[in-house]
What does this fold into?
Amino acid sequence: GAVVSQHPSWVICKSGTSVKIECRSLDFQATTMFWYRQFPKQSLMLMATSNEGSKATYEQGVEKDKFLINHASLTLSTLTVTSAHPEDSSFYICSAREFFSGRPETNEQFFGPGTRLTVL
Amino acid sequence: GDSVTQMEGPVTLSEEAFLTINCTYTATGYPSLFWYVQYPGEGLQLLLKATKADDKGSNKGFEATYRKETTSFHLEKGSVQVSDSAVYFCALSESWDGKLTFGQGTILTVHP
It folds into this structure.
């Protein structure tokens, strides 16, 4: 099956610094990538949708200036948490989708293993 | 807006027991429904899906039937194994861009 990788798998940083998380589709071209945040014992919350070559679409309540998303190629999207604070500590998960013809909502999303961010 | 509600966990079963994880949804249109599984230390994987009413999705012994009349998509397995221990997420999608709305997840632990 299709593989999506994330790097790093975990990161610890000081408050006020910025952290970049990479999401790569290893064996397919991802026209769309999604970024989620997962709190302990809670569901995944969609943060933003990014389409290759265009600006990301952020969900309501997500600060676009704090969570910078870049999808510059068909195999790579990055999430940068700027001026991170302890409340940004969370598990960040990306997923990638290759567009097929037909109903796009049935096109499978492939998920990365996640990145654990801890802000001290 | 769309929403998905799963039964509260955690669920603890003995090996070979019958499993049911309830999932109900609210949507404005005709969504596609999914079950995802997250094994310890791994990313979410699609377990099964159904794209229209009365469809049955099945995989690895798991089944779920899309019930429009009850807006449900309950996950079942006749005989669970220790290796089925994981977190299970019910989800729906009805948007052109494929955005998923997830339930809160159910932790399943299967003991030998």
